[in-house]
Amino acid sequence: MRIRAAVTLALALSPLVAQAQTPPERQPIGRRELERAQDELVSRRKYEAPVKPLKAAKLREAIRDFQANDYKAAPMHLTYGEFVTASGYYFVAMHFDAALPADVANATLFGTIDDNWSMEEPVTLQRAADGTAFYERSLPLKAGNHNATFGFAVNGEPASMISVPMSLRTLDKATRGVSRLLVAKQVFPLDKVQAADDPFAFGGIKVVPEADLTFHKNDELWIFFEAQNPGVDESGAPKLTTNVTLEGNGKTKRGLAGDAQPVALKGVPGHFGVGTTVDVSRLTPGEYLLRVSVEDAVAQARYDLLEKIAIVE
Questions:
Q1: Would you tell me how many other CB atoms lie within 10 Å of the CB of residue 227?
Q2: Half-sphere exposure of residue 16, counting CA atoms within 13 Å on the CB side?
Q3: 2-29+176-312 has which CATH code?
Q4: Are the CB atoms for 258 and 2 separated by under 8 Å?
Q5: How many CA atoms lie within 13 A of 243 on its CB side?
Q6: What angle do CA 267, 269, 272 make, to 5 degrees?
Q7: Does this chain's domain 2-29+176-312 share its CATH topology with 57-168?
Q8: Residue 214 and residue 271: Cα distance in Å, rounded?
């Protein structure tokens, strides 16, 4: 079933992207026109970095005290990744989640990056399959090393927070490489056209990162990454080989993943999505190092993607 799920991903990408490029009740448009329209939409968005301090004094004080290890809040989890649109617009996709009460539908996302950027905005929370509250958005951050602190506030009170260093890679549309590794429980087709900078959306397929990196033995654990400008053969197809190992409890497990074939992401030339599932049903509970080794046979390049995960009953 898990290998069949990987095949389903590959089959789902093509028809959904074709649907995404032909909006209902409109005349078909070419790929370049679509890319241009999407990137123009991105450029119109109000992504200028706020420089004014947070409006709420309670939130300012919470960040100050949290950074000094003098403020207690439930943990927030953060997954982020650097991407570029077809025209080279650089953005950082971000996924925030926290175990907030089930009756909480709205919150305030607040945060600071370094000492010159802050945000405070009301958000509508989504719920993952396990009930975890999450919110996603993309930000036009600059490459480099940053210190970030974010939180969810409910009814004006900081409820969950995280403080984390962010090392953002330099990336443009000519860069060759692979994205950060995403691990997820939810991967599904989108039912509407995605914007060029929608977070963790890949050619009609949505990946919901599992930010706390914890999986039950009966979960379907997805791995996903984007390959940008890999080497291609005469047919224009890349030759990527993906090997997955799990190291933990004194053992190394191999052969737990299905076939992971790259699928072209239409609308973003030179970008390919690679996803498959990993069978964790027979693993002993504990912490594991998930290692995904990617070999590009055409470009003669190798990438090692690492993530620490936890398996529970």
A1: 24
A2: 22
A3: 2.60.40.10
A4: yes
A5: 10
A6: 95
A7: yes
A8: 29
pLDDT in tens, the chain (313 residues): 444 444 445 434 433 333 333 333 444 445 555 555 555 555 545 445 555 679 999 999 999 999 999 999 999 999 999 999 988 999 999 999 999 999 999 999 999 999 889 999 999 999 998 899 999 999 989 999 999 999 999 999 999 999 999 999 999 999 999 999 999 999 999 988 888 899 999 988 999 999 999 999 999 999 999 999 999 999 999 999 999 999 999 999 998 887 788 999 978 899 999 999 999 999 999 999 999 999 999 999 999 999 999 999 9
Report the residue count for the chain: 313
For 40, the 3-state DSSP assignment is helix
Tell me the three state secondary structure of residue 8.
Answer: helix
Kindly report the backbone phi and psi dihedral angles of residue 37, in degrees, each rounded to the nearest multiple of 5, phi listed first: -65, -40
Q: CA–CA separation, 190 vs 72, rounded Å?
A: 37
Residues 6+ apart with CB under 8 A from 131: 102
C-alpha distances in angstroms, 30 versus 22, 26, 136, 194, 266?
Answer: 9, 12, 29, 16, 11
Can you give the residue ranges of every domain in the chain?
2-29+176-312, 57-168
CATH superfamily of domain region 57-168: Immunoglobulins (2.60.40.10)
Structure tokens at 101: 């009460």
Is residue 279 within 8 A of residue 2, CB to CB? The reply is: yes
Q: What is the pTM of this model?
A: 0.85
